[in-house]
C-alpha cells in the first residue's frame, strides 16, 4: 500500500553525466542518507552509479553493491561501462559486490575474469533460469549486506530482454522480464540495509 509511504522529490541535477556532472551529483547527494531512509536516483546513464555512490557513502569499503545489469561494467576509463570498476578503484571491495543478470554474450572474457579475480559474486542470466528472483535477491542481500553493511542497488534496464526495453541500445535478447525486474526492485527496496537505488 503506497499510501503509507512518504516520498520527497529532491529535484533535478542538470547534465549529470561526465565531467563536471559527476562532481555535481556527488556534491548534491552528500549527507542525504542522514535525513532519508532511501535515496532513488533516476536518469542519467549508468555512470550515475559511480557519482551517486561516492556522494552518498563516504567510505566505500563499508558498503555493499548489488547490480542488475547485463554487463559487468568493469571497463577501464570513465563511461557508462565503467562504474563498478571505478568504485572498486575508489575502495569498494569486490567481495562486497553481487552482479545479477550478467549476459553471456554481452561481456568479454577479460571482464568476466576481472570479476572473478576481484571476488565479485556473479549470478548470470543462465543462473536465473533455474532460480527464483526471490532466492537470488535473498542471496545478493546476504552477500552485499554481510555484517550489516548498507547497500547500494544499481538497476540498469539493459538487464531486461530487448522486448522489455526496446529503446535501450545495450539490452540483448534473453534478458529478464519486466516482472522479474519489478520483483527484484521490490525485494531490494523492502530491505532496510538498502539505502540507495
What is the topology?
Layout: H1 18-29, H2 48-56, E1 63-68, H3 83-89, E2 97-102, H4 109-117, E3 121-124, H5 125-128, H6 133-144, E4 150-155, H7 178-189, E5 194-196
What Rg, in angstroms, do the CA atoms define? 16 Å
Report the end-to-end length measured between terminal Cα atoms. 20 Å
Category by helix and strand content: alpha/beta
Number of helices: 7
Biggest β-sheet, characterized?
A: 5 strands, parallel
Share in helix: 25-40%
Can you list the strand order of the major beta sheet?
Answer: 3-2-1-4-5
DSSP strand tally:
5
Low-confidence stretches: none
Question: In percent terms, what proportion of residues is strand?
Answer: 5-15%
Chain-averaged pLDDT: 94
- The outline comes out as globular
Q: What is the ordering of alpha helices and beta strands?
A: HHEHEHEHHEHE
Amino acid at each position: 500500500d503506497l499510501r503509507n509511504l512518504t516520498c520527497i522529490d529532491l529535484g533535478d541535477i542538470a547534465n549529470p553525466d561526465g565531467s563536471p556532472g559527476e562532481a555535481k551529483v556527488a556534491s548534491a547527494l552528500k549527507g542525504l542518507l542522514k535525513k532519508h531512509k532511501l535515496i532513488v536516483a533516476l536518469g542519467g546513464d549508468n555512470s550515475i552509479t559511480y557519482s551517486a555512490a561516492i556522494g552518498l557513502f563516504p567510505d566505500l569499503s563499508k558498503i555493499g553493491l548489488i547490480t542488475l545489469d547485463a554487463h559487468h561494467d568493469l571497463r577501464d576509463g570513465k563511461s557508462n561501462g565503467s562504474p563498478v570498476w571505478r568504485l572498486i578503484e575508489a575502495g569498494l571491495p569486490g567481495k562486497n559486490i553481487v552482479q545479477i543478470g550478467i549476459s553471456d554474450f554481452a561481456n568479454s572474457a577479460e571482464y568476466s575474469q576481472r570479476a572473478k579475480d576481484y571476488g565479485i559474486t556473479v549470478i548470470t542470466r543462465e543462473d536465473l533460469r533455474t532460480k527464483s528472483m526471490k532466492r537470488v535477491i535473498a542471496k545478493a542481500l546476504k552477500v552485499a549486506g554481510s555484517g550489516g553493511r548498507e547497500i547500494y542497488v544499481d538497476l540498469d534496464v539493459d538487464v531486461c530482454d530487448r522486448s522489455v526495453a526496446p529503446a535501450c541500445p545495450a539490452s540483448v535478447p534473453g534478458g529478464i522480464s519486466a516482472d522479474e525486474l519489478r520483483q527484484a526492485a521490490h525485494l531490494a527496496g523492502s530491505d532496510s540495509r538498502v539505502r540507495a537505488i
